[in-house]
Amino acid sequence: MRKAGRKPGNRLLGPILAFPGVLWLLLFFVAPLYVVLAVVFGGVDPVFRTVIPVWNPVLWSSDQPSYVLSHIVGPDGFFGPALLRTAVYVSVASVLCLVIAFPIAYYVARLSGRWKGLLLTLLIAPFWISYMMRMLAWVNLLANDGLVNRIISLGGVFPGDTEWLSGKSVVVILGLVYGYVPYMIIPLYAGLDRLPSELVEGARDLGAGRVSAFWRVTWPMSRPVVVASVLLTCLPMLGDYFTSDLLSGSPATSMVGNLINETVLTPGQTGQAGAFVLLVLIVSILPMLYYVRSVSRSEGSMA
Amino acid sequence: MLTAWWRDPWRKPRVLAAVTILYLLWSLLPVLVAALFSFNAGRSRTSWQGFSMRWYYGDPVRSVWHDDTLQTALVQTLRLGVVTTLVTVPLGVALAIGLHRWRGRLPNAANSMLLLSFVIPETLLAVALLLVVTNLALPFTLGTTSQVIGLVTFQLSYPAILVRARLATIGSQLEEAAMDLGASPLAAQRRVILPMLVPAIVASAVLVFADVIDDFVIVRYLSGDASTEPTSVKIYNTARAAPTPALNALATLMLVAAMLAVTLGFLLYRWLSKRTGENESIGSFAGET
């Protein structure tokens, strides 16, 4: 244990070193969220359609958020489908990501020797390849005269003329999986690598089969890691609009991110974009806090 | 025979190995195909017409070398990468050391704020900063300055988290020994702790650089006009609008830049780790602690 304050400068060094970073986060992370509130609950200039932020919470008006809320369900609910679609796409893509990532992370974590380093490097490689380049690759492959259609048609035997890139939910979901699965494999691997393999070996020695050793020993131990990894992938997906834009570009597959992206730069609709931002923030704040708590707790046990 | 193989408790995990190999093919082949087509002699991005360097520098109008808009995007990407890394890493390292030494409720709150900035959906932060820059009278407008501010905010958690994890494994004995031997607290940090942190700092610098040159959401919303749009925005804007393989060439160049940074960084990291006795792993280059 550290003896606190053995010298006067000792106690101040921490706060002094942390100050610039903390100030930065307060100015450019916390304060901007208040600006969003001021814009959402502010007004719109009737002539120029520009945003008039209202800084005093007492004067806030709920016109813009109630406009958005009243158009989610009901006969005028033109925002509803995109919100529902976001929930479905993100859930399906997250489950698919986990189904792909878990066996891979588990396999590499159990591996040893030189293959492990090579496999790990290849698994991490997509992390350093731009998301846009990886989507561009699929735009090329799925184009009408692209490789996918040519492989399906076996060189012209079958009519391979599927228009993959216009409003297909399957393509957008697979695009999300392709884009985000590397971000799940890495934290999963890091967590599974730390699990004590003796416990699984012990279970097998005591007569558990492969399946029951997995369900009764490995899975319960890895659940916290799985939850954290799923959060790390599905949170950024909630704000995604570019995957749908590049792989579909149709309103039939637009997500809440597309609603934000389309309204934020439209004069007079910036407040609506802010309202969608708040909506996503409200939905994601509990998972975010859960992640913070689980990480802080594991840091506490390490120190 | 198949059931005997399946029941053998000590068989090699061939199914898992096959899944991993298939995944790697699925994850890397499309990118390799896209990179290959940047060397296509024709303007198709889907049918191969022979090898050429046309889209890199051969074509007098549309190649990356001669098309000003592509060149601007490339330069802007690298500029954002370098400047953001230079700001983020010192800020994040100081924050990590500060939070590590500072006990109480306030540093816990600051740590939570840091972790929240790590998991917040990027679009939310980007829109919030866009609203800040467009609605407040700030000494800067949309463009490089705004982009760097946004990127630093989003990336600050990487060096802070990596360095804090390393500090937790170092412990406090060495620092106390240095101070018992007469070093001031600041000197103990500078001469004992900081040298031990160098590998973690190198890893986080590489990570931040590689992540920034791939960033899309923040740099797009905070770019002022076409002159501050980096590569990723260029790809987004033109991917669906009948582009030439020059776009693939641009993306391939970014890929090479990222791989070069990571390879050089990893060699440096491994060399430094050997000297300080840290357990080196490529995992640190993806934010693994």
Short overview:
The complex is a heterodimer of chains A (303) and B (289). Chain A is mostly helical and 303 residues long. In chain A, 71% of the residues lie in helices and 1% in strands.
Query: If classified by CATH, what would the architecture of chain A be?
Result: Orthogonal Bundle
Write the element-wise H/E pattern of chain A from the N-terminal end onward: HEEHHHHHHHHHHH
Strand content of chain A: under 5%
Just name the CATH architecture of chain B.
Answer: Orthogonal Bundle
For the CA atoms, what is the radius of gyration of chain A?
Answer: 24 Å
Report the sheet-strand fraction of chain B.
Answer: under 5%
The Rg value of chain B, from CA coordinates, equals: 23 Å
Uncertain regions spanning at least 5 consecutive residues of chain B? none
| CATH C-level category of chain A | Mainly Alpha
> Based on DSSP secondary structure assignment, what is the total number of beta strands of chain B?
0
Biggest sheet overview of chain B: none
Keywords (chain B): Cell membrane, Membrane, Transmembrane, Transmembrane helix, Transport
Organism (chain B): Nocardioides islandensis
Membrane topology (chain B): Multi-pass membrane protein
Subcellular location (chain B): Cell membrane
What does this structure look like?
Chain B: Keywords: Cell membrane, Membrane, Transmembrane, Transmembrane helix, Transport. Chain B: It is a multi-pass membrane protein. Chain B: It comes from Nocardioides islandensis. With 303 residues, chain A is mainly alpha-helical. Chain A has a single domain (41-302), classed as Orthogonal Bundle (MetI-like fold). Chain A has helices at 8-40, 63-70, 80-110, 114-128, 131-142, 147-152, 169-193, 197-205, 210-238, 242-247, 256-264, 270-302, and strands at 43-44, 51-52. Chain A is globular, with a radius of gyration of 24 Å. The termini of chain A are close together. The model of chain A is unreliable at 1-8 (pLDDT under 50). Chain B is 71% helix and 0% strand. Chain B starts with a helix and ends in a 13-residue tail after the last helix. The mean pLDDT of chain B is 84. The interface between A and B is large, with 110 and 103 residues.
